[in-house]
TrEMBL record, chain A:
Protein name in UniProt: Phosphate ABC transporter ATP-binding protein (PhoT family)
Chain ranges of the ABC transporter domain: 21-263
Gene Ontology BP term (one): phosphate ion transmembrane transport
InterPro entries for this protein: AAA+_ATPase (IPR003593), ABC_transporter-like_ATP-bd (IPR003439), ABC_transporter-like_CS (IPR017871), P-loop_NTPase (IPR027417), PstB-like (IPR005670)
Keyword Nucleotide-binding tagged: yes
From TrEMBL, chain B:
Annotated Gene Ontology cellular component terms: plasma membrane
Pfam families documented for this protein: BPD_transp_1, DUF3333
Membrane-spanning segments: 34-57, 226-247, 267-289, 295-317, 338-363, 413-432
BP-aspect Gene Ontology terms: phosphate ion transmembrane transport
Any one Gene Ontology molecular-function term assigned to this protein's record: phosphate transmembrane transporter activity
Protein name: Phosphate transport system permease protein PstA
Residue ranges occupied by any ABC transmembrane type-1 domain in the UniProt entry: 222-428
Coiled coil, from the record: none
Organism of this sequence: Rhizobium subbaraonis
Cellular location(s): Cell inner membrane; Cell membrane
Length: 268, 440
C-alpha cells in the first residue's frame, strides 16, 4: 500500500517536469524501408533520457530525428510531429542551422576536427556569432572545456591538434565542442562505445553534471549505463517504442514483457 | 603407403598425427617466384628509364654550352655608312653588311691578307650569321659606336660549335666534312688565344626559334608554355573544383548524375588529338580566336585537364571521413560552411596533387597544339597570350625534324628542360602531399 503510494508520488513528481521535446507518431523511412513505426516519446527538461534496445531497432534513427540530422541522409523521410518547446521542428519555416545550435549532438566515434583543441571548441561559437571578441571567445572555450572536465588536462596545449588526444579525451572534447554552442538539448549516440571503462566512467560522470544545465538524450547499448546515467528510459524494438518509463521502474519492474526479456539478456 | 597397406589389413600401425599436406614448400617457392617476377619487372622498367635518360642527357647536355667568339671589332664607318647618310636615312644602319666587320676582324686576328679570297670565305664560315643581328642592334641602339673598336661576342657557327665540342668525326675525308682542316686549325689557334671559348648558353633560354641552330632558343616556347600553364591553372582549378564539389556534395544521386559521372570518366580517356580538333572547330573556326595563340591552346588543354582534376578532386573529397561532415553539421554549420571550413581544406592536398599532375600532362601535350597551329615558326617572344607562340613539346617536335647536327643536340637539350620542369612539378606535388597530409 505504502509502496504504491510512494510510487505514485514519484510518478507525479516526474510528470510535473516540463517536456522539452515531444515526438508524436514519428515514423521514419529510408527509401521504401520503414525504420520507425509511430513512435510517441517525450523528452523532459534537465533529464537524461536513455534509449535502449537491440541493434538496428531504430534508436539512432530516432535520435537523429530530434536535430534533423536525418535530413543529410539521401532518401530519408520523417513523418509525424516533433516539437521543441512546443514548436514543430520540421516546420518549413524553421532554420535547421538554428535548430542544430539548440539541439547539439555527440557521435558514437569521437570525431574532433583535425585542428587545434581551441579551434575545435571555438568553431561553433564562431559560426553562430556567440562571441564578439577574442576575449569572449577565449572565455567560452575555457568554460566549455571546464564543463566537459577537460580544462585541466588540455589548458597548456590548447593549440595542439585535437586528434592527438586519447579516445576518452577526444570524446570529452566533442562534448565540450557541443556545449560551447550553448544548446538546450544534447543528443549522444552511444558516446562511450569506443572508450575504455575508465574513460567511460569519466564521460558518465560528466553526463551527470551536464544534466543540471542541459536536457540529454543518450543512446546506449549498455543496460548498466542506462541505469547509471538516466532518469527516464525508452526501450525500442524493431522500430517500435516498446516502453517508456522511469529508469528505476524500467529496470526493476518493467511493464512490458519484451523489456523484461531484453533486460534479462534474453535477446538483443 | 605402408599406412594404407596396414589399414587394409585391419591393423593400426602408428598413432601419428594426421599429416596435413598443405604444401608449405610449394607455397614458399611460389612466393619466392612471385617476388622475383616483381623485381624483374621493376628492374626492366628501371633499365629502360635509365637508357632513356642516358641518351637524352648524353646527347643534350652540350646544348647548355655554346661556342662563342670574343674579339675587338672595328665598326668601320666606311663599311657601315660610306655616304654618311644615317642622319637623313636611318635605314642604312639596318641594311649594312655587318658580317663583313666580323670577318675582317677575324682575318686580321688570324693574319690573313685581304686579297686571299678563298681563305676569307672560309673565315666567314667560322661565325654565325646571327652576328649580323648582334652588331646591328649594337649600332642602332648607339650610333656613336661607329668608328670605334669595341670587344664583341658573337656566336660561332653551328658547324664550328659542333666541331669544337668534338661531335664531328675528323677521320672522315675533308671533302665530305662540314668543317675544313684549315678552319680547324684556326679554331685551335683562336681557342688557345682565348678568342674562341665555350660559355653558358643563355641564348637557349631567351632566343626565339631560328633556322640557324646556334641562334635557336626556347624563349618563345618557354613563354608559350608559361601562358598555357597559367591559363590552364586559372581556368581548370576553379571550374574543376566547383564541378566536383557540386557533384560530390550537392547533386542528387540519379540517372543524370550517373551519366555525367560516366562521361567524365570517359572524357579523361579521350585521345588528346580529339581535343585539338574540338578546339580548332570551336575556338578558332566558330569563335574566331587567332590561330597559334596560347589562349586557344590554354582553352584546349583546360578541356583536356578538367576530367583529370575533377576525378582527383572527387576522390579527395570522398576520402574526407563522413564523421567530419557530421561533426560540422551537428554543430549547426550550413552545408557550405561544412564544405569550405572542413571538407575542402582536408581535401586540398589531394586536389593540388591532382591539379599538378594534370598540369604536368598538359605541359607535355603536343598533339592538340599541332592542330590549333601552335607549331608555327615564331622568332619573337609573344607579348600576350593572343600572339603566335609555340610550346616546349612542340618546339622539341619541330627541332627533331631538322637535319643538322646542332639541332639534334638542341632537341635533347630542350627535352632536358622539359623533363626538368616535369620533375619539379611532380616534386612539388609530392612535397605538397607530405606537407599537408593529416591523420584523423
Ligand atoms: N542511412 C541509412 N540508410 C538506410 N537504412 C538505414 C540507415 N541508417 C539506418 N538504417 C536502417 O534503419 C534501421 C535502424 O537503424 P539504427 O537507427 O541505426 O539502429 P540502432 O541505432 O538502434 O542500432 C536499421 O534497420 C538500419 O538498417
Ligand atoms: Mg545506432
Amino acid at each position: 500500500m505504502t509502496e504504491a503510494a510512494t510510487e505514485e508520488a514519484l510518478e507525479k513528481k516526474m510528470n510535473t517536469v516540463p517536456l522539452k521535446m515531444v515526438g508524436k507518431d514519428v515514423s521514419v523511412y529510408y527509401g521504401d524501408k520503414r525504420a520507425l513505426y509511430d513512435v510517441n516519446l517525450n523528452v523532459r527538461e534537465n533529464t537524461v533520457t536513455a534509449l535502449i534496445g537491440p541493434s538496428g531497432c531504430g534508436k539512432s534513427t530516432f535520435l537523429r530525428t530530434l536535430n534533423r540530422m536525418n535530413d543529410t541522409i539521401d532518401g530519408c523521410r520523417v513523418t509525424g510531429l516533433i516539437t521543441l518547446d512546443g514548436g514543430d521542428i520540421y516546420d518549413p519555416a524553421i532554420d535547421v542551422v538554428e535548430l542544430r545550435a539548440r539541439v547539439g549532438m555527440v557521435f558514437q566515434k569521437p570525431n574532433p576536427f583535425p585542428k587545434s583543441i581551441y579551434e575545435n571548441v571555438s568553431y561553433g561559437p564562431r559560426i553562430h556569432g556567440l562571441a564578439r571578441t577574442k576575449a569572449e571567445l577565449d572565455q567560452v572555450v575555457e568554460q566549455s572545456l571546464q564543463r566537459a572536465g577537460l580544462w585541466n588536462e588540455v589548458k597548456d596545449r590548447l593549440h595542439e591538434s585535437g586528434t592527438g588526444l586519447s579516445g576518452g579525451q577526444q570524446q570529452r572534447l566533442c562534448i565540450a565542442r557541443a556545449v560551447a554552442v550553448s544548446p538546450e538539448v544534447i543528443l549522444m549516440d552511444e558516446p562511450c562505445s569506443a572508450l575504455d571503462p575508465i574513460a567511460t566512467a569519466k564521460v558518465e560522470e560528466l553526463i551527470h553534471e551536464l544534466r543540471a544545465n542541459f536536457t540529454i538524450v543518450i543512446v546506449t547499448h549498455s543496460m548498466q549505463q542506462a541505469a547509471r546515467v538516466s532518469q527516464r528510459t525508452a526501450m525500442f524494438h524493431l522500430g517500435n517504442l516498446v516502453e517508456e518509463n522511469d529508469t528505476d521502474k524500467m529496470f526493476t519492474n518493467p511493464d512490458d514483457q519484451r523489456t523484461q526479456d531484453y533486460i534479462m539478456g534474453r535477446f538483443g | 603407403m605402408t599406412d594404407i597397406v596396414s589399414q587394409a589389413s585391419g591393423k593400426v600401425v602408428s598413432a601419428a598425427p594426421p599429416r596435413r599436406d598443405i604444401g608449405i614448400r610449394r607455397r614458399y617457392a611460389a612466393e619466392r617466384r612471385f617476388r622475383f617476377y616483381g623485381l624483374a619487372a621493376i628492374a626492366f622498367g628501371l633499365v629502360f628509364l635509365f637508357i632513356l635518360l642516358w641518351t637524352v642527357v648524353s646527347k643534350g647536355y652540350t646544348a647548355f654550352l655554346q661556342t662563342e667568339i670574343t674579339l675587338p671589332i672595328t665598326f668601320s664607318e666606311q663599311l657601315i655608312d660610306p655616304g654618311n647618310k644615317r642622319e637623313s636615312d636611318p635605314k642604312v644602319l639596318q641594311t649594312a653588311n655587318y658580317p663583313l666587320l666580323v670577318r675582317d676582324a677575324l682575318a686580321e686576328k688570324l693574319g690573313i691578307a685581304s686579297s686571299d679570297r678563298p681563305a676569307l670565305r672560309q673565315v666567314s664560315g667560322l661565325f654565325s650569321d646571327s652576328a649580323r643581328v648582334t652588331l646591328r642592334d649594337m649600332v642602332v641602339s648607339d650610333p656613336s659606336i661607329i668608328g670605334k673598336t669595341v670587344p664583341v661576342t658573337v656566336l660561332a657557327s653551328a658547324n664550328i660549335d659542333s666541331a669544337f665540342k668534338g661531335q664531328f668525326d675528323l677521320t672522315v675525308d675533308e671533302g665530305s666534312r662540314k668543317v675544313s682542316d684549315q678552319q680547324l686549325g684556326w679554331v685551335n689557334t683562336l681557342a688557345e688565344e682565348g678568342v674562341l671559348s665555350k660559355g653558358f648558353n643563355t641564348g637557349l633560354f631567351v632566343n626565339g626559334n631560328s633556322s640557324r641552330p646556334e641562334a635557336a632558343g626556347l624563349g618563345v616556347a618557354l613563354v608559350g608554355s608559361l601562358y598555357l600553364m597559367g591559363i590552364v591553372l586559372v581556368l581548370s582549378l576553379p571550374i574543376g573544383v566547383a564541378a566536383s564539389i557540386y557533384l560530390e556534395e550537392f547533386a542528387p544521386k540519379n540517372r543524370l548524375t550517373d551519366l555525367i559521372e560516366v562521361n567524365i570518366n570517359n572524357l579523361a580517356a579521350v585521345p588528346s588529338i580529339v581535343y585539338g580538333l574540338l578546339g580548332l572547330a570551336v575556338f578558332i573556326n566558330f569563335a574566331g580566336l587567332p590561330r597559334s595563340a596560347p589562349l586557344v591552346g590554354g582553352l584546349v588543354l583546360t578541356l583536356m585537364t578538367l576530367p583529370t582534376i575533377i576525378i582527383a578532386t572527387r576522390a579527395a573529397l570522398r576520402a574526407v571521413p563522413p564523421s567530419i561532415r557530421s561533426a560540422a553539421l551537428g554543430l549547426g554549420a550550413s552545408r557550405m560552411q561544412t564544405i569550405f571550413h572542413h571538407v575542402l581544406p582536408l581535401a586540398m592536398p589531394g586536389i593540388l596533387t591532382g591539379t599538378i599532375i594534370g598540369l604536368a600532362h598538359a605541359l607535355g601535350e603536343t598533339a592538340p597544339l599541332l592542330l590549333i597551329g601552335m607549331v608555327a615558326f615564331v622568332a619573337n617572344v609573344p607579348a600576350t597570350p593572343l600572339d603566335p607562340s609555340t610550346a616546349l613539346p612542340v618546339q622539341i617536335y619541330m627541332w627533331a625534324n631538322e637535319a643538322e647536327r646542332a639541332f639534334v643536340e638542341r632537341t635533347s637539350g630542350a627535352i632536358i628542360v622539359l623533363l626538368a620542369f616535369l620533375i619539379i612539378m611532380n616534386l612539388g606535388a609530392i612535397l605538397l602531399r607530405r606537407r599537408f597530409e593529416r591523420r584523423w
